[in-house]
Amino acid sequence: MSNERFLRDHLIQLLDWGHAHVQFDAAVKDFSPELRGKRPPDGAHSPWELLEHLRLAQWDILEFTRNPKHVSPNFPSGYWPATPEPPTGTAWDESIAAFRADLEAFKELIADESIDLYARIPHGDGQTVLREILLTADHNAYHLGQFVTVRRLLGAWE
What we know:
Mean pLDDT: 94
Structural class: mainly alpha
Radius of gyration: 16 Å
């Protein structure tokens, strides 16, 4: 296996977690609808707020990486939902599905050997595809850790 293929495989594994990080699907699995909009005592975020933040940030990074016409949301308001509760009965599942779809798109981008991971993104300010992948993995791991902590504080994590 070439070093390039080895790196790409490791980056895909990094986005999938499972080694030193909780996997996304494990973090959101069997989460009670009654707790999705609850903030723990003295907690800054509800599970819904963290889930939507994860989705919005990952989507923004992906679109920035692959679409030169992408316009990022305003920071920070565009990266957080307006309310602690999901706005509809289907919003939770829709957010999970969108997060998974964008994660798969990122993994496809990584696997595409025609994409130079080290090349600067033409519409960026010095960023590379590799940097955006690492940023996504780091950001997701951080907030999934918060998500698990909130679940624990709400009594919804074993």
